[in-house]
Structures are given as structure tokens and as C-alpha cells.
Specification:
Strand content: over 45%
Distance between the termini: 23 Å
Order of helices and strands: EHHHEEEEEEEEEE
Number of helices: 3
Number of strands: 11
Largest sheet: 11 strands, mixed
Shape: elongated
Helix content: 10-25%
């Protein structure tokens, strides 16, 4: 079963409308699969400072700085602010990077990247205040390679307000993304392929809900999330 985000959102509006007269704020208790998908999606998307922002922006920085910063066992760090204001999503984050150039026989061969990020985002349904850390090994840095390859993890935790038909609930959540062979084109800085897993734990103050799924990065700005046997298409931009 394949579900797009727009189809899922439309279905939610129809179902929500039929129950709006009988539901109260107290009756919103569960963290649904739809909620889980949107939280995981935000941890992947560029416009909410997720994985896509981390790896594509860092790839651009690395390619730009490689010629002057290719010193073995040398640590580098930088920071910047990120903001996005779209029709559906808005976000504002402070991002810090640190990386170490690792060498083999005096030739740069890989990079140990660590990043931290804190800020907020809002969508049509969710408002989030969160922090994240990422640790990755980057290979393919030699000039002869046309791709950079990222493997590692991103961990995001925070608090969210979920709104459905003017009813709200407060939750806290932890998301862990384990990423394998995330391949980024050195010219376009786009993710072309890769795989990963997503683990989400959310608590609404009285219950804890857990979700886990698999991710396939398709290229062309999209990824596929498989959660509980359902397949969702994720826009990474």
C-alpha cells in the first residue's frame, strides 16, 4: 500500500470532520501512525533542518573548503543559522558542525563529522521545539570520486504540540535515524541513494508509543518510508 502525504492529510480531514462534534480535547490520546510519519518526515526534510539539510549543506561546504582544509588529523568547526518560511512549513535553527580530516598514508581518505542543531519548526499539524545531534563518517572525499558517501546516525528529541480539528495534545518525542551509504552528488549536492532505519518513541504524558520503519532514499528529492507495512513517499526538500 502506497500513501502520499497529501492523500493521507485529506483522509485525516474527512475522518476528523465526521467526528468533530463528538470529540473533545480530552479524547485525543493516541500518537497515531500519521503523527509518527510527520515527525519522521520532519527529521529527514531540508526545510525543517533534518538529514537533507545536514548532508547537502555540509557536502557543499566540504567541496568548497577541501582545497584549503585538506590537512590530515586537523579539526575544523563552523556554525550558521537556518530559517525557512514556506506556505506549509516554517522553521528556525542554530546549527554547529565539527569535523576531522582522517588520512591514509598522508592522503585524506575520510571525514568524521559531528553536528548539533536546536530550534523550532511548525507545519499544518505540528509545532516542535527540538534538539538534534548527528555523527557520520564521510568517504569519497578524494577528487577522483563524483560522490560523497555518508554513514552514521541522527538523533532528534524535543516537545511537540499536535493539532487536529482545533483539538491539541502535547507530546515529547525521540527519533533515531541510522543511515547507511547516503550518496550525495558532488555537483548537485543532492542525495541520490541510500538506506536507513527510523525509530520513534513518543510520550503524551500518560502513555508511550513506539514506531520503527525502514527508509529508502530514491534520489530526485524523495525517500520512501515503510512503517507498519504501509509505504509513504517523503519529500526531502
Amino acid at each position: 500500500m502506497t500513501i502520499t502525504r497529501s492523500t493521507l492529510f485529506t483522509a485525516t480531514l474527512i475522518i476528523g470532520s465526521s467526528f468533530m462534534t463528538s470529540c473533545s480535547k480530552e479524547e485525543i490520546k493516541n500518537v497515531s501512525e500519521e503523527d509518527a510519519v510527520e515527525l519522521i518526515e520532519a527529521s529527514l526534510q531540508g526545510n525543517t533542518a533534518g538529514v537533507n539539510e545536514t548532508v547537502t549543506k555540509y557536502s557543499e561546504l566540504l567541496i568548497t573548503d577541501y582545497a584549503t582544509n585538506a590537512n590530515c588529523n586537523q579539526s575544523y568547526d563552523t556554525s550558521y543559522t537556518f530559517s525557512y518560511a514556506g506556505a506549509i512549513a516554517q522553521s528556525s535553527y542554530s546549527i554547529n558542525w565539527g569535523y576531522l580530516m582522517e588520512c591514509n598514508l598522508g592522503i585524506p581518505s575520510s571525514i568524521a563529522l559531528n553536528a548539533s542543531c536546536s530550534g523550532t519548526y511548525s507545519t499544518g499539524r505540528i509545532t516542535s521545539n527540538d534538539n538534534s545531534v548527528a555523527n557520520m563518517i564521510v568517504t569519497g572525499i578524494e577528487p577522483s570520486s563524483s560522490m560523497l558517501i555518508f554513514s552514521g546516525y541522527l538523533y532528534r528529541n524535543g516537545s511537540q504540540t499536535i493539532t487536529i480539528n482545533s483539538n491539541t495534545q502535547e507530546i515529547t518525542s525521540i527519533i533515531t535515524l541510522n543511515l547507511t551509504d547516503l550518496t550525495v552528488n558532488k555537483t548537485s549536492y543532492e542525495i541520490e541513494s541510500g538506506t536507513g532505519t527510523a525509530i520513534l518513541t513518543a510520550n503524551n504524558g500518560s502513555e508511550t508509543f513506539s514506531f520503527s520503519g525502514n527508509i529508502v532514499f530514491n534520489g530526485g528529492g524523495s525517500a520512501t518510508l515503510i512503517l507498519n507495512g504501509n509505504t509513504y513517499t517523503i519529500n526531502l526538500n
